[in-house]
From TrEMBL:
This is Methyltransferase family protein. It comes from the Bacteria. Residues 42-130 form the Methyltransferase domain. Keywords: Methyltransferase, Transferase. It comes from Planomicrobium soli. Gene3D superfamilies: CAC2371-like domains (2.20.130.10), Vaccinia Virus protein VP39 (3.40.50.150). GO terms for biological process: methylation. InterPro entries: Methyltransf_25, SAM-dependent_MTases_sf. GO terms for molecular function: methyltransferase activity.
């Protein structure tokens, strides 16, 4: 997506980190219930580092992402965290952790073989009692077509977007999202861009089976955001070998 590459500098205007405070605290509650003593965490697909901005207050975090530009945005917000560039299917962070956290970035995989590769790579990065927490955007059971908009003004610049997610073919395992962006720079000049993305749509049963194949036992935890009306679940994956 253009948003994670040539338009990445606009990310803090599209999705400011202040909008992540509630979700980060809901994720932290769940993480601490399953592993009260997380000291070192690794995030795959950490993007602008917005969740990490809140989570890093509770444990040290290494942040990883495919996009060099998004890592640059995150470095400005989280200068104390180590940042590494790579694909979550095969990145090697060179260490093991108490927690691997994957937020919405995993939603972009449209093949179960890719999801399995991510889960296996997460397992390689876990200490014996370490846990994997995945917060995908959607499951077949909970998906609803959605239209949203947002963006803010800050430091003399502005960004607004319209986002439309639909499922053109209910028989396939993907959803389609179209974006329109309007940007205003410091001189007041207006630019417009469009963007699009494809996301995977898999059942909770499929996720659970893939996680089992990668060596995890899964618990689905319902997440109640005050700002969202949809139904969301996080997946806590505990290593079978740690039992
Ligand atoms: C919506 S952003 C993540 C925002 C993040 N949850 C936060 O708290 O700021 C999605 C990110 O996924 C990253 N991404 C997409 N595919 C990836 C892959 N295969 N491996 C690693 N990162 C990936 C993109 O570069 C992008 O930065």
């Amino acid at each position: 997506m253009k948003l994670y590459n040539e338009l990445a500098e606009w990310w803090p205007w599209m999705s400011p980190h202040t909008e992540y405070e509630e979700e980060a605290s809901l994720y932290l509650d769940i993480i601490q219930r399953y592993h009260p003593d997380v000291k070192q965490a690794l995030e795959f697909g950490s993007g602008g580092g917005s969740n990490a901005y809140y989570l890093k207050r509770h444990f040290a975090m290494v942040l990883s992402d495919l996009s060099r530009e998004m890592l640059e945005v995150s470095r400005r917000l989280n200068p104390e965290c180590e940042h590494i560039q790579g694909d979550m299917r095969n990145i090697d962070a060179g260490s093991t952790f108490d927690l691997v956290f994957i937020h919405d970035a995993i939603t972009y995989f449209t093949a179960t073989s890719d999801l399995l590769a991510v889960m296996q790579n997460a397992k390689k990065h876990l200490n014996k009692k370490g846990i994997l927490f995945i917060m995908t955007d959607q499951f077949t059971e909970t998906f609803r077509p959605e239209t949203s908009h947002g963006g803010i003004d800050k430091d003399g610049r502005g960004f607004r977007y319209l986002e439309w997610t639909d499922d053109k073919d209910p028989e396939d395992f993907v959803t389609e999202t179209e974006y329109l962006y309007i940007m205003k720079n410091e001189k007041g000049e207006i630019f417009r861009e469009s963007d699009s993305s494809i996301s995977g749509l898999f059942s909770m049963d499929t996720w659970e089976k893939l996680l089992a194949e990668a060596g995890f036992k899964t618990t689905f935890e319902r997440i109640h955001y005050t700002t969202e009306t949809g139904i969301y679940y996080g997946m806590i994956a505990e290593q079978l070998s740690a039992e």
